[in-house]
Structure formats: C-alpha cells, structure tokens
Task: structure prediction
Amino acid sequence: MILRSLILDALVVVGLAAVLPACGGPAFEPTFPEVAEPEFSKVLRALREAQPRQDRAVVVGIGGEPSKLFAWDLREGRMLWERPVSAASAPVVAGNLIVTQESDIVVRRLEDGEEAFSLDEEGARLVGADGDGRDAVITLAHGPEQSPHGIVVGARGTSVAWTRDLQLPVGVAAVSNGVVVVPWATQRISVLDMGRGGAERTRVRLRDAVVGHAFVGAGGMYVGQHGLFRMTESIETGTRREAVYYEPIARPLPGQPPLLRDGYEPVPPPDSARHRVRLEWRVTGEGNQIGLQDDNLYLVFYRYVFALDPAADEIRWVYTHSADLVGASVVSGGILLVTEPGQVIYVSAATGMKQWEASLGMRVQNAAIRPGDFVPEVQDAAEAPPLSAQLWEAASLTDARLAGGRALATRFLARSEEADVTGQLVELCARRGDPEPVHIAACGAVAERTTGGDHVRDALRVHGSFLQGIEPPPVGALAKAARNMELRALVPMLLEHLEDPSTPNAELVGLMEGLGGLGHRSAAAPIERFLRLYHAEAGDPALVGAAVAATHALAAVAGRDAEPLLERVASDPLAQAPVREGARAALAALRAPPPQQPAAAGAAEAPSSPPADTRPERVTSAMTVQLFSGIDRQLQRCLPEGTDSVRVAMLVAPDGEIRRVMSMPDTVQACIEPLVRPLRYPATRLTAPTQVVHTVRRTPATPSRHN
Amino acid sequence: MRASVDRALVVCALGTAMGWGSAAGAQAPQQQATTTAPVATAAAARPPSPARAEPWRALESNDPEEIQGAIRAIQRDHNYRAIQALGQRIEAGLPPRLLDAAVDALIAMGRGPGAQVLVRLTRHRRAPVRAKAAAGLVATRAPNARRELVRLLDDPSPVVRAAAARALGELGAAAAFPELLNAAQHGVPEAATVVGATATSFQAARLLPLIDEQRLDSLAPVLEAIVGRSDLPERSRQAIVARLVEVGSPGCYRLLQRFASALPEGDVVRQAAAAAVEQHTAAGASSEGGGQ
Result:
C-alpha cells in the first residue's frame, strides 16, 4: 500500500516506512484462535471501561455550488469551515477526522478542514471509518468489486499509525479505548490493538448471523448487520439466541432500506438515493437489554420520516417536509434532520412535530450528523394532528419519487375504520395517473373497506365524462366495498356503470365480484347480457377477465337458473378458453353438494340440529399472509434481479382451491405458479370464486458473500 | 313446407334455440317468443327457398367460416327477414371479426329492425364497434339516432366521438348545434368541422360572443370553416373578422393571417382580414418606432 502524507514531517514518514513492513504478520489471518483467553476477557474489560465519547456535535456535509465540504457546529449554531471538494462518497466523521472518497481517500481535520493525510492506494474504496478521541480506524476495499480485499488503517492524531491488509473483505470497523473491532468475511470479528500496530488480540465468529458493522453506542461496542449484537461475554457463543442480540421486526417498507447499509459496500456517493431512503435509530440499553432510543425506528424516505414501532408493524407518526431530507440522526427525544435547502430541524420522537430549526446557509446535497449528546432547546410543540390526518397528508403528495412512501402511508391510513378515511381512500384510488404502488394500495384498501358507505355511494354517482373532464370512479374497488358493507341499494348504480363504456374494462372484474357478492337478483339479467355479448370477445385481457368474473357473478346472483347459459358458454368453441373454464367452474360450484360438516359427538342422536356453518364469510388478507408465509422464501427466489416485488393474482374457489394464478410481471409466471397452485385456502361461505392479490416482496437479502 | 317453418322458428328464436336461456326469470323466453312471432308468421306465409334459408341455419354454427358465410349471404341477398336473427346472433356473442362483419351487414341493409341492435351496440365495450354503430345509426334511420349520437359525443374514445360528430353532420346538424359546438370547444375536431360546415348565419352569429382569447384555439377550426363558405352571407363572415379584430389577441391576428392567405383571391373577407393584419402590423411598427 502506498501512503502519501501531505502534512507529516520527514521524521514521521521515515518512522512510518519503518513500521509498514512489520504490519503484514500472521496475526490477522484466517487461522487465528477464536475467543482465546485471557485476551478475550481483557478486551471486553477494556470495552466496558471505555469513557463516554466527548464528541463535538457537528453536521458535516457536502453542498453549495461549486461543491464544498463543510462542518457546522450544532451547539454554537455556526459554520466552522468550508472547503472545495469533489467527493465521490458522502463524508464520514471519525473522531477528530473527516474521511471522504475523492480521487484518493482524503482525511481532514474536523477542527479546521485542513487535510491530515490521504490514502492513494489505487482503486481503493472507502468502506467506513470511526474515531475515539485521537484514535481512528478506516476500512477500505480494493481489488475486484465482487471479491474485494480489505485494508484496515489505524490513525493516531492526524497521521497513519499502521495498516493491515486482508485477502478477504472487511466491513465498517470501530475503535474504543484502544480496542479496534473489525468485522470481516461476513461472519468474523477480529479485535486489534490500536497501540501495538494493529496486532490481533482475539477473534469471534458469528454462527447464525452476518456482521458488516462495528460501532460504539450506549452500553458499549456493537456489531451486526441485520440485527445488533452487544460485545459482551455471551458473544463468544456466536449465536443470536445466546448472545445479547436485538433485531426489529421485518416488514415491507418502500425501498426496503436495511437496518445498516451493507457493511462491505463502499460508502455511497453523496447524491445516492440510499442517503435519502434509510432507517435511522439509536441504540440504548445496558447489560442484556438492547432497545432503540424512544422506542422508535425511523424510516427516512425523501421528504418523509415515518416513526415505526420496532416490534410491530405499526406507525406512530409521519412527518412530511416540503423538501428532501439529506441527513438524519437520532438524539434523545427526537430526530435531527438536515434538509436539502439547508435547514437543520428537530422533530419530536413523541409527536412527530417540528420543535427546533436552524439554517446552514447553503443548499446541501448530503450531510452526516454527529450529534454527540447534543439536544436542542426546544419550545413546546403544537398538538399533533391525528395519525390519520398525518397519513392522509403524506399519501396525498404528488411527487413521483414518493410513490413508495405514499403507498406506505396509504396502507396504514387504511387501518383506520373512520368513515371519512373511506372517502380519502376512494379519492386516492380514483387518481389513475398516480404511480402504481399508490394506486394499488389505495384501491386494495377501498376494496377492503367496511365503513363509509356514504362515500361509496357518492363516488358511484359519478360517471366518466370526456366533455366535462370527469374521470370515471374506481368502480371495481367500490363494488367490493359495497359488497363488504352489504349495500344492496347500490346495485342499480353498479349496473349503470356496467353498461357505461366510460367505465374502464379493468374495473369490470371487481364490479362483477361486487355484484356477485351482493347477490341481488336484479343483477342477473344485466350480467347475463354481458356474458352473452362478451364471452367470445378476444383482444383485451381485461374484458376476457370480466367475462370470466361474470360467470361466477351470474352463478352467485341467479343460482341454478344460471345453468343453461353457463352450460352454453362452457361448451361454446367460440368462447374464449378462460371464459369456458370459468363457466365450467361456476357450474361445478353450483352443482357441488353442500359441504359436509365434521360429525360431532352425539350428532347421530340429534340430526335435527345441524352444526352451525363455521366457515369464514370470505377470504381475508390474514389467510393470505398465513398461507404464503410457508413459501415466502421460495417465492422471493423467483424475483428477477433488480425487482423488489411481484404481484400474484389468484382466483380462489369457495372450497379454497386456487383455480388460476397470474403473476405481474408475467415473466416470473413459470416460477411462481407451481409454488402457489398447490396452496389451499380455507373453505369460505362465498358462492363464487373470488380474486385475491398478494404481493411478494424481497426482504433484506443476505449479502451474496455470506460464508 | 313444415320443415321450412320449423327452421325459421329455430333461427328466429335463436337466443333460446341455441341454448342461451335466460337466467333473469321466466319472462325472457316469453319476450323472445313474442318478438319472433311475426317473423315466423311471415316465414310460414311465404317460406324462403332452401338457398335463402341456408344462411339462417349457418348462423347457428360453431364454425366461424360458416357464420361468416351466412352473414355475407344475408347481406348479399338483402334478406330482411334474417335481420332479426342476425341481431340476435350479435347479442348472443360473436368473436370480434364476426361481430364486425355482422354489424357491417346490418348497416348495409339500411333501415330496419337492425337499428335497435345498433343503438345497443353504441354501448359496446369495444370502441370500434361503438364507432361503427354510430355511423350505422344514420344508415338505418334509427328513430332515436340523434339523441344517441349526441350522447356519443361524450364517449371516452376519440374514434367514437369523431364518428358521432360525422354522423350528426349527416343527419343534419342544426338540431344538435349546441352539443356539437360544445364538443368542438372540448377538442373534438370532427365536431368543429361539422359545425363549420353546417352552421347557419344565425348560428354563426351566436358564435361571435364566444370568441375570446381562451376559447380561440378550440373555435379556430369552426371559424376557418365558416369564413371559407361561399354559401353564407358575406356579412356573417365579415362579422367574424370584425370580432377577431375586436378581441385583438396575437392568436386572433394569426387566424386572420390564415384567412388572408387561405381564402380565394378577390374574396371580400380575405381582403378584410388582410387589411386588418396590415393595419395591426403597421400599428405595431409605429409603436416600436415610438418606443425608440
């Protein structure tokens, strides 16, 4: 490795040159003994005895035009310095140093921004850095991107003290009380001695978890990647169950940000979206307890901050800002945020209300906040609006990049049973120009509503009009909502939409399902006319799907009277094949004997009192979640590279059989269908098959270099 | 003889004979029987020759080629007694190609019982079918054609709106002038063409107050068509030029410029437009000169 120091004097250079050849000893090698005593206990003691860090509270960022690296003092509320920079990575604050990837890896003094030294190993990428007082450790990757080699650099004061090379990748290291903790090769942790040239003291191997980061937090040193281990005696077991371990629950989130960025990947560039879509938290607890500050896990998503319950799929509040949030750090009682226009704001952990604000005086591309123990002096916040109002505000924004966040807000908004929320969801669902995730979330939620019938009726009163510039309402979802609410009085309105060409064909499947579920006899003739007229129509899959749905809706509303037409369709060679199949399935369901209830003890003695029908009324999302939980991992393997989710649409028969499976995109149909087809839902009291849509999402992936 | 009557009954009552039984209740078969009775009587009174009866039979077929042949034969022979059967076959559901052919046949046979089938097809889910039905309403002289065509000016498909506007033009657009004008102002170019081509001088005068900066783009095709018409009184055409000068926006003068270059030499409206443009240009130059 070539080191080029710009400020070291000649003596230091000579001394360093003398040290370097001795660094590549056998200590930091794959064969070092694990948790060897007494060093292991000594290391833990040193970590326990570490004094709390007395870090200067700063915001270090990149911003302005032309681009500048700056440091801003949070306590004093003033800019410390600005330096021109052409940075390829976001800045990393490490003790008294700041590290950035530029043409070389440049290390500056936090105090004044002057360059301390730089690391010009060709092709080296900055992986991470940490500092404790005058000690700092920097980790780099070099060589091929898929299988990089690691470099660990120890610095004291403003100069390099030692380096260690490794033939395997290293993660983000940390230093505390002279103890350097280095994750490497995804499961190994080496502890180096800062004062003895980085000599390895002890080693731990995690057996059932990945480790890419080491960091110092409340209660000591932590390591982890998808979860957090505290470095205590129990870590020698190397297992999550026996060590002091914490992991928030997994849940689908927009962009699927990891708990910690991949510790083996280089620090992303300042303009990377990964800085704007991320999870923020601060570890708390002592001894065998690990928790998160204020019991909040924060999802930062461009302009949003969602405060999540780390232990449940719940949202506590959502803060919506007028501009992107380009830096975030959790402090006691809240979260500090840096905005793109250059504000530093503090949002209360309890309410999600902004309580403090300061100006950096320049636009900011990216910012790292190291708050230390800084907490702004805040004024009492205004009372927070209800969560549903916060979610509605978040869901209604129109910025195209926010689609994932809007969909998340919509999903949680739908959990409110308030009638007015139905109106809001209908409004979102009706915006056909909205990004697909929002539209799907909103319309899916409308279709599940059980309250707010007035909003459903009001929406159905509207018909599309080109001349008046009126979009047709989301009839399919509204029909399902009407079915859930048993609003049979709305059947005539639904039938008007069936006859109206301004109702998009894509709405007709839902409309038919709604009509079928409502089971009103007056719908029989219009559905019958529809089925006759369109059973042979080809070309538009939505219309074919509607004809299929019509077979089941007709069976549901007309019962055995539907048989003549269904028989004709089932045997008509001119009919579209799916429609024929649908007609056959509907006939089979009509002719199936009533389901046998299991004979209860003593049933023979009491034949006159048949057991109550315990079947659920319809397919619920809980059933789907439970059903898919068993094959989730296999389904995720079907997801193509670069795709985070796939939708699976199924036609589920009343007896629980999955009759049809369609994937969106259809390129994964061949992989998805064989996995889904054998599943079986519980039998329901439905009289016709129903469509169910499930989204398979990629959960945070184990790094491909997992040993 | 008996065999022919039976065949006619079978074909005319196609909806039930082919198994398209109604699930809506017991009334539907009765309705079908009632509507098909006159045809059956006619067939009994004057039975078709076997060659003429053959197309009716083939409509029952499941073979698309046979159905296509039957449709062609019905159209070729102008077999009006088959129209009802054809209409019922359409409503019993056909693949797109056959449906298009069947609708063409209904339209080609002109006035008759096919009109009501076409009215129903103006609500078909395929826009080309609606457009074809819209055009066919004129050919079949459907009694409620105007009302249906006005409705179709608001159709979600531009193809259907265009067909409806043209059909209204063919029907005589005077009665639908307000609706056509509204459609023209909302970006249905065919409606603008029809209004421009058919407006009376009285209707042209009603346009004048509508001319303003906001609506000029949508009205421009109408105005161009009107000032280009030699069958309208000169004063009606001149009034449009005068109104454009009165509004005086850049768009108005661009339109006047188009009049000045598109109308025939010697046309007084052309001369008036050219004079207005010239005067406006001179005034502009003078104002610029003054500014200097």
Summary: The two ends of chain B are 100 Å apart (CA to CA). The first helix of chain B runs from residue 2 to 12.
